[in-house]
Amino acid sequence: MGQDLWKFILSELKPKGKLLTPFNIISAPIILLGLVLIVLRFAKGLGATTNLSQEFPWGIWIGFDVVTGVAFAAGAYIVTFMVYVLRMEKYHSIVRATVLNGFLAYVFYAGALTLDLGRPWHIINPIIGNSFGVSSVLFLVAWHFLLYMMAQFIEFSPAVAEWLGLRKLRKILGSLTVGAVVFGICLSMLHQSGLGALFLLAPAKIHPLWYTEYIPVLFIVSSVFAGMSIVIIEGTISHKVFRHQISAEHHAKHMDIMVGLSRLAAAALFVYFFMKVLVLIHGMHWHELLTPMGYVYLYEMLGFVVLPFVIFVLGAKNRNRKLLLSAAIITAVGIIFNRLNVSVIAFKWYAPVHYIPSWIEIVITLAVVFGEIWAFRWVANRMPVFMESPQWVKHLDSELGHPVPEGDLANIGSKAAGMQAVKIKK
Amino acid sequence: MRKNGMKTTRRKFLQLTGVAAGASMLLGPKNAFGVVVTKDRSQQYAMLHDTTRCIGCQACERACCEKNELPAPGEKPDINLERNTGPVNLTTVNAKATGGKGIIFSKSQCMHCDQPACVSACLVNAMYKTDEGPVIWDEDKCMGCRYCMIACPFDVPKFEYGSINPRIRKCIMCYDRIQDGKIPACAEACPQEAILFGRRGDLLDIARKRIYDQPSVYVRHIYGENEVGGTNMLYLASVPFEQLGFRTDLGTTPYPEYTKTFLYSVPLALLLAPAFMLGLRQATKGKNDKD
Fold it and tell me: Is B117 in CB contact (< 8 Å) with chain A?
């Protein structure tokens, strides 16, 4: 059995599907170049490869990779909350893809943090306990990252066990899901807000239109529509790319799911807009609105909060896939814009020379994003993410009392499940 | 059987909620994290820089570079030049043209805040406020995240971007010299006695006396007395401090206060949110759900 498993893993390492797709042709060279540049960054130091300076210690590796990347990963905690806490079974079919996407986003985007650290060989210091900086928000964020990655892995691990055909392990891992989900949601909310709370320590450096004591709350609320927009974008693309893996029944439900998520995103956008207006009025900074930074602020609020809200509402009402997708894309771009505003653009807006990322920083960032997509595709092509779980899992779950979507028990014939079943008989 | 199972979960849920609520009552936000004790700071080491006495000779800069084995300063203070501190110059003297009082020189370096933003930012305690007053940095702990640089309201910590083993560099008030019974190199080198080293309480007395004795010379403001909750670096000047390029918009709130509310909410959230969510899961349970 052990040898079979090993052979199976080796055979799975090989690429599946066409190699020369447009996406691969664009992304592969960027990933390769990115890897070379990462070596260069460690060989030459941060000064030679980035445009970071004494004035601007944090650039896009923090502002985009970490702060935005984590917001984009928020879909996992929201969807698991809906499915496991509120028991909205409608969304069960997207849990695995969303959790996988969240987990990989953390591994890649937050993992890119190590590139930004000047002394990465000390990265385990806050974990091993010789130096607990408990008064630091960053300390909490670091711990929450670590624990949440574990929680997400536990949430996804049943899919790994199903892929490898390990029944006993699958049974154990499946029973851990609810605990990991509840724990994971708490961690998520705390570090989504924690990433915003990091900037509370820079009251004199961040433009008053963005600096508010409510940054943590704004970060949580905006993480809801950030996560939803990515789930909608990822869901729409996956729906096409992995079409052959998705059962007919899930195809039919797909539009319902997208509409539901869009409504949630629209609600979150509305709450967010309302809070931003309250903060603006409360902070009495409206006279700043007619300055250059004020225009940036208005552009962000009207173009990336109000506009996608309207499109989401229209798209959900008319069940128009294109409208929903465009609203999701605008929202996602808006989240990038907002997070970069707080961490980079409105940071030291008064400085005569402002930070602009170097081409190396941009290429490495793109390589990280593409790397995450490659990893996602690799897993989705092998493990039951979109495809049905093997038949034995359904019996296992019905024994455990986990809800099994109607019709699944009858629907055995999917190609993937068949493949798994053959392998298990060995 | 099933009824029984339900009972246990409900009891479990109530227990959890009880524990969470009880713990939050017992711990309370004040005990959840270390409270900043209002201690007597008057005995801490501090420095007083009287800018009315400074002649911009850079003796302090040269002494600092020598002590820290750094290259001697190249450029001279100039009203058209902004001389920031950096990884190879931990203190700099700047010249500012003012209206009534001509050119005024002032020295910048770490302010050694009483409740430093950099220390509360540091997730590994590499930045550290000593009991004696100076804020120091520990090479063996720092991971180079540069959050201290983001947090510092005076932009003091500097990073060796050119190095592959980069350090955070900043003035440590010659903490090593102090421990040997000596005074900081800059204070020792100053020919004008424009930099006084001593106990913070004594230096505040001296500063107040100078203002009281010569009200026409000094503005009635000791920079650092209350800024960001008080610093161990104190300044006197003959013009309002914003004319010398000092930030006077920082307020008197110690920086750790800005993140305190968030940090306090963390243990509460970790206790109450799971109980709330498990409760919701029970509340939404349907007929066919077993757990």
Answer: yes
